[in-house]
């Protein structure tokens, strides 16, 4: 296994973005059907006060709206059946981290979920990878407490580089294995605000040169790393980031940004940069702490 490169401080950066090898963008996505989506417990601040409050008809309509937006952006959708007793499985960005090697072989690292309520989701997602020619890997070290896939480990758009959040749902030491397994550097960002417990709640890659972030979710060291590597930064304010999950948007093709409706300040910046904005409603899912990015897994 190659040596790992995990960067946590600006003075550890030893490369420029231009030096990072390219990686093709995935053109397909997994989504888990929402028939069992409810809020039955509280494992993040957004769930407080929302147990039992999900409108299932509205949730289905919102799920279909998100799916249709991905299709509009040219993404092929694979729908996996939701499972009874696993209400958060619909947030399928969390259970895995897929990768395609330079020779075209497909790999996936399965997650080690932080909350006991979500641990059984991983096996069902793994079944899809096994049926679709992926080599499946698991966290090997018993000392790694948790790792929640692309909720925290986000590929730099079009590059063999991972941005890795840690502090709430994923352990910093998980990235040593991630980096070595996929032979890519990981820029690790400590998360400091409990409402932004996954990196995908406060950091969104838009294209290879642009990211959308909520700055106050990060330490000064993390912000220095983001600004040193990514040339163009769009910043969300607290309301649009925390209440509307603006940074839980996704840009699957480098052009179309699928985002919760109402993020007017962020959207204005996106339009000015030439992005195509596709607004959707994820109101029911935001009650549970997720939005567009959480509801899909981009796959190869």
Core attributes:
three-stranded mixed sheet
Report on the architecture of this protein.
- With 300 residues, the chain is α/β, with parallel strands linked by helices.
- The chain has a single domain, classed as L-arginine/glycine Amidinotransferase, Chain A.
- The protein has helices at residues 56-72, 121-131, 174-182, 220-229, 238-243, 264-272, 283-286; strands at residues 5-7, 28-32, 76-80, 96-100, 106-110, 134-137, 153-155, 162-166, 185-190, 203-207, 210-213, 232-235, 256-260, 276-280, 297-299.
- A four-stranded mixed beta sheet has the order 1-9-8-7.
- β10 and β11 (210-213) form a beta hairpin.
- The longest helix has 17 residues, at 56-72.
Which architecture per CATH? 5-stranded Propeller
CATH superfamily: L-arginine/glycine Amidinotransferase, Chain A
What's the β-strand tally? 15
As a whole number of angstroms, the C-alpha radius of gyration is 17 Å
Element-level helix/strand string: EEHEEEHEEEHEEEHEHEHEHE
As a percent range, the share of strand residues is: 15-25%
Show the helix and strand layout:
Layout: E1 5-7, E2 28-32, H1 56-72, E3 76-80, E4 96-100, E5 106-110, H2 121-131, E6 134-137, E7 153-155, E8 162-166, H3 174-182, E9 185-190, E10 203-207, E11 210-213, H4 220-229, E12 232-235, H5 238-243, E13 256-260, H6 264-272, E14 276-280, H7 283-286, E15 297-299
Parallel strand pairs: 1-9, 2-3, 5-6, 8-9, 11-12, 13-14
Antiparallel strand pairs: 2-15, 4-5, 7-8, 10-11
């Amino acid at each position: 296994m190659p040596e790992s490169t995990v960067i946590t401080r600006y003075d550890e950066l030893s490369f420029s973005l231009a030096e990072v090898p390219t990686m093709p963008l995935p053109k397909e996505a997994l989504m888990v059907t929402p028939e069992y989506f409810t809020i039955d417990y509280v494992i993040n601040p957004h769930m407080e006060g929302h147990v039992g409050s999900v409108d299932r008809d509205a949730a289905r309509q919102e799920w279909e709206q998100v799916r249709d937006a991905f299709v509009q952006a040219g993404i092929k959708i694979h729908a996996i059946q939701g499972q009874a007793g696993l209400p958060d499985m619909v947030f399928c960005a969390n259970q895995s981290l897929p990768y395609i090697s330079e020779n075209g072989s497909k790999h996936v690292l399965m997650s080690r979920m932080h909350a006991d309520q979500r641990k059984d989701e991983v096996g069902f997602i793994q079944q899809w990878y096994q049926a679709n020619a992926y080599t499946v890997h698991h966290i090997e070290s018993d000392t790694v407490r948790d790792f929640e896939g692309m909720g925290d480990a986000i590929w730099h758009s079009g590059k063999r580089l991972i941005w890795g959040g840690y502090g709430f749902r994923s352990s910093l030491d998980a990235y040593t294995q991630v980096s070595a397994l996929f032979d890519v550097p990981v820029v690790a960002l400590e998360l400091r605000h409990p409402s932004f417990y996954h990196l995908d709640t406060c950091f969104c890659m838009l294209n290879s040169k642009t990211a959308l972030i909520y700055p106050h979710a990060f330490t000064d060291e993390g912000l220095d790393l983001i600004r040193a590597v990514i040339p163009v930064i769009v910043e969300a304010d607290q309301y649009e980031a925390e209440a509307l999950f603006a940074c839980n948007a996704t840009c699957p093709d480098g052009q179309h940004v699928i985002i919760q409706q109402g993020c007017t300040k962020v959207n204005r910046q996106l339009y000015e940069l030439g992005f195509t904005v596709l607004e959707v409603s994820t109101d029911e899912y935001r009650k549970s702490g997720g939005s567009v990015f959480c509801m899909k897994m981009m796959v190869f």
